[in-house]
Amino acid sequence: PRHIQAVSTFARLHPGIQKAIYDMAWAELRPLQVRAIQATLDTDAPLILAASTASGKTEAAFLPVLSRIAEARVDSVQALYISPLKALINDQFHRLEQLCEAAEIPVHRWHGDVSSTAKQRLRQEPGGVLLITPESLEAQFCHQDRHLSRMYRSLQFVVIDELHAFLDDVRG
């Protein structure tokens, strides 16, 4: 039954995301991923995914998000990923690039080490997924305010990684 549930859940994903999973030679979806896909695709309610390290939380959050984005692309950032660490953003960027390639979803990052050229390209052609630190998001609101309505006009999803790092902290 669990295998059948995972197969039917996999079938709910966008064909481009299915292809990426197949190309990455995943043996199966993890139980957290199955539950997150179902919950995200079945409701618009906020969700919190809590699980141990290396449990597939990032993919659990992004598989349904990317499927929704792939169904209806617009010229706006559609998913915002907020992380407290630039290193984590860089790691997740490469992981998400693999998932997004087959579905032709652009993935961008924005923090202090990202070139001004890459940031300018995003401002001119917003779309897909943006990975950003809280400080960079704040800086956008302070210094890029004329671009924000265009960049985020069709924002559908906000994924906050390492939520506990923001609680009871000035960054939160």
How would you describe this structure to a colleague?
- Strand 2, helix 6 and strand 3 form a beta-alpha-beta unit.
- The radius of gyration is 16 Å and the shape is globular.
- The mean pLDDT is 88.
- It starts with a helix and ends in a 12-residue tail after the last strand.
- It has 172 residues and is an alpha/beta fold.
- It has a 4-stranded parallel β-sheet with strand order 2-3-1-4, sandwiched between helices.
- Helix 2 crosses helix 5, helix 3 runs parallel beside helix 4 and helix 4 crosses helix 5.
- The longest helix has 16 residues.
Topology record:
Blueprint: H1 2-11, H2 15-23, H3 31-42, H4 57-71, E1 77-82, H5 86-101, E2 107-110, H6 116-124, E3 128-132, H7 134-143, H8 145-152, E4 157-160
Helix pairs in contact: 1-3, 2-5, 3-4, 4-5
Spell out the key features of this protein:
172 residues; alpha/beta; 8 helices; globular
Strand order of the largest sheet: 2-3-1-4
Query: How would you characterize the largest beta sheet?
Result: 4 strands, parallel
Parts with pLDDT < 50 across at least 5 consecutive residues: none
The first-to-last residue Cα distance is 41 Å
Give average pLDDT, whole number: 88
What is the N-to-C order of secondary-structure elements (H for helix, E for strand)?
HHHHEHEHEHHE
Annotation field: number of helices? 8
Question: What does the radius of gyration come to?
Answer: 16 Å
Strand content: 5-15%
Multimeric status of the protein? single chain
Shape: globular
> Total number of β-strand segments?
4
Helix content: 40-55%
Helix- and strand-based class? Answer: alpha/beta
